[in-house]
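hey
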C-alpha cells in the first residue's frame, strides 16, 4: 500500500511540473501584453530616449520576448525573481514579507468556514424538510450572494467604527504578537469566510442527506446504532472526500478574494502588493507574485490529492 501511494504521489508531482512551466509562460506573456512601457515609467519625469534605452537594457527589456522569457525562467529556477523596478527590493523578499498576512487571513477564514459550515450542514441534513433546514439553506444562499467587500464595509461600520470592538484597518505580524495579529484578523476573516461557510454548509447538507438515505445507514439503524453515532462516526466519514474537495476549491477562492479584503482593511498582504505593482506597471513584482500564487495553489491541490488517498485508499486502485 505504501509503495502504491508513493508511486501515485510521484505521478502527481510529475504532472504538476508541465503545469508550472505553462503557468510561467502565461504569466510572463500576459504581462507583456499590458499596454504601456515600464521603462518609461521607471525612467522618471520627462526622460530622454537615452535614459529609456538604458533602463530597457538594465532590465533586459530590449531583448526578444523568448530570450527574456528564457532568462527569467533560468533565474526563477535559482530562486531569483528579479527586483522591483520601483523600489529595487528583491521580489522574493517582498513576497516573504507580505505572504504571512495573506496566509493568516486565509487560514482563519478556512477554520471559521469549516467550524461553522459543517455543523450547520449536519443540522440541516438531520432535520431535512423542516423549518430549521429551510432557514439554514436560506441563510447559506444569502451568504453566497452577498459580496465580500460589501460585508467587510458593514463589519467595519458596525464593529470597528460604532462599537469600536475591533480595529478597522491594519495588521500585526504573527511573529511579533500572535494575539494582536489574530485580533486584527477577526473582521477580515469573517468577511472572507461568509461565502465559504455557506458553501460548506450546502455541500455538507447535500452529501450527508444522500448518505443518510442509503441502504448502508438503514442497516446500521437496524443494528441499533444511535442516530448521533451514525451521523458523526459513519456519515461524516463517508462524505470526507466531498468535504476535502470543497475545502480545496475554497482555499483557492479565498486566496483570490483576499485582494479585495486586503484593500478594504488596508492589510499589507500579497494581494495589496500585486495591486500596487500592477498599477505601477512593476512587471517583475507582478510576475513574481502571480507565479508564487500559482505554485502555492498547485501545491495545495497536490496535498489535497494526497489526502484523498489517506481518507479513501480505494482511490489508489482507480
Amino acid at each position: 500500500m505504501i509503495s502504491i501511494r508513493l508511486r501515485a504521489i510521484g505521478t502527481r508531482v510529475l504532472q504538476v511540473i508541465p503545469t508550472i512551466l505553462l503557468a510561467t509562460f502565461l504569466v510572463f506573456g500576459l504581462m507583456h501584453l499590458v499596454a504601456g512601457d515600464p521603462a518609461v515609467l521607471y525612467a522618471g519625469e520627462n526622460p530622454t530616449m537615452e535614459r529609456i534605452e538604458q533602463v530597457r537594457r538594465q532590465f533586459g527589456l530590449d531583448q526578444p520576448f523568448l530570450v527574456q522569457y528564457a532568462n527569467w525562467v533560468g533565474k526563477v529556477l535559482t530562486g531569483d525573481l528579479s527586483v522591483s523596478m520601483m523600489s529595487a527590493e528583491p521580489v522574493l523578499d517582498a513576497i516573504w514579507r507580505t505572504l504571512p498576512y495573506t496566509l493568516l487571513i486565509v487560514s482563519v477564514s478556512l477554520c471559521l468556514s469549516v467550524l461553522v459550515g459543517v455543523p450547520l450542514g449536519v443540522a440541516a441534513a438531520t432535520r431535512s424538510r423542516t423549518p430549521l433546514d429551510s432557514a439554514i439553506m436560506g441563510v447559506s444562499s444569502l451568504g453566497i450572494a452577498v459580496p465580500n467587500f460589501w460585508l467587510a464595509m458593514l463589519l467595519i461600520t458596525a464593529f470597528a467604527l460604532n462599537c469600536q470592538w475591533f480595529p478597522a484597518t491594519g495588521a500585526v505580524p504573527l511573529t511579533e504578537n500572535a494575539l494582536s495579529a489574530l485580533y486584527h484578523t477577526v473582521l477580515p476573516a469573517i468577511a472572507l469566510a461568509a461565502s465559504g461557510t455557506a458553501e460548506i454548509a450546502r455541500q455538507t447538507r447535500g452529501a450527508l442527506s444522500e448518505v443518510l438515505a442509503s441502504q448502508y445507514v438503514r442497516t446500521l439503524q437496524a443494528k441499533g446504532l444511535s442516530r448521533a453515532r451514525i451521523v458523526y462516526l459513519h456519515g461524516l466519514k463517508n462524505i470526507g472526500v466531498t468535504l476535502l474537495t470543497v475545502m480545496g476549491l475554497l482555499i483557492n477562492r479565498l486566496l483570490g478574494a483576499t485582494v479585495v479584503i486586503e484593500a478594504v482593511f488596508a492589510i499589507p498582504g500579497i494581494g495589496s502588493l500585486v495591486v500596487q505593482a500592477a498599477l505601477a506597471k512593476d512587471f517583475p513584482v507582478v510576475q513574481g507574485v502571480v507565479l508564487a500564487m500559482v505554485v502555492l495553489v498547485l501545491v495545495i491541490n497536490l496535498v489535497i490529492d494526497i489526502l484523498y488517498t489517506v481518507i479513501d485508499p480505494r482511490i489508489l486502485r482507480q
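The chain has a mean pLDDT of 82. The chain is about 80% helix and 0% strand.
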